[in-house]
Amino acid sequence: MSTGWIIAVIVIAAVVVLAATVILRARGRHGGPDLKRRFGPEYERTVARHDGDTRAAERELTERVERHGKLSERPLDPAERDRYAQRWTAVQERFVDEPREAVAEADRLLAEVAGARGYPDAGRYEEQLAALSVHHAHHVEGYRLLHRATRTGATGTDGGTEELRTALVEARALFDDLIDTHGTGGRHRAGAVSGTGTGDAGAPARPHTSWSLHRGRPKES
After folding, report:
1. Does some domain include residue 129?
2. 44 and 116 assigned to the same domain
3. Which burial class, exposed, middle or buried, applies to 72 when counting CB atoms under 10 A from its CB (0-12, 13-18, 19+)?
4. CA-to-CA distance for 138 and 133, rounded, in angstroms?
5. Is 196 found in the same domain as 106?
């Protein structure tokens, strides 16, 4: 190989290394803050799951965005929203007498709603959860808790039942996000959930039934 070719190869290699360095530095400056803003508590949970390895966690989160970031949620029509809301209310009412069964039904319902919105179907829970974390990062942990509760169940003690109730309450936020197809970010849901207001553009409020672990002491979810 001639001296000219050797010099050309060295120059090309140096350019490649320099470009890679610039890219890595750019990711170091912007990747972390951008991912933190996008994923919120899900970012911290992922870092913890990687034993504090921020780079590994950010690689995972970046891969999620690349796979699911362009997903377009299918809107629900008003009739669909009402049916899902009524079914969730029925789940809450059932919890009083059958907490384990109610939580299992809520898990199935949440997976069904996510599938209806265009996310991976319920048969691919991990993939569905990953996609949801990209678009509903601040509430996806509730779904994770709910799904885990259906696998572990309650122990039959007050503490076990309380864990189920907590999972159901936490999952409600994601459910509300998924049936809120107007992009209001929850602004109209407070009145709609309590039955005291209306949704966007004068849409009728969704019925909601107060519920708790004990019949005699209703508690708002």
Report:
1. yes
2. no
3. exposed
4. 8
5. yes
What is the pLDDT at residue 160?
83
26: CB partners within 8 A, 6+ apart: none
Both tokens assigned to 157: 């003690």
Q: Is 130 in the same domain as 185?
A: yes
Q: How many CB atoms sit inside 10 A of residue 11's CB?
A: 10
Q: Which domain holds residue 10?
A: 3-68
What is residue 66's predicted lDDT score, i.e. its pLDDT? Answer: 94
Q: Residue 55 is encoded by which pair of tokens?
A: 């780079």
Domain total of the chain:
2
What type of residue sits at position 43? Y
Residues 104, 171: one domain?
yes
Does residue 212 surpass a pLDDT of 90? no
- Cβ partners under 8 Å of residue 19, min gap 6: none
Mark whether 121 and 23 lie in a shared domain: no
> Burial level of 107, CB count in 10 A (0-12/13-18/19+)?
buried
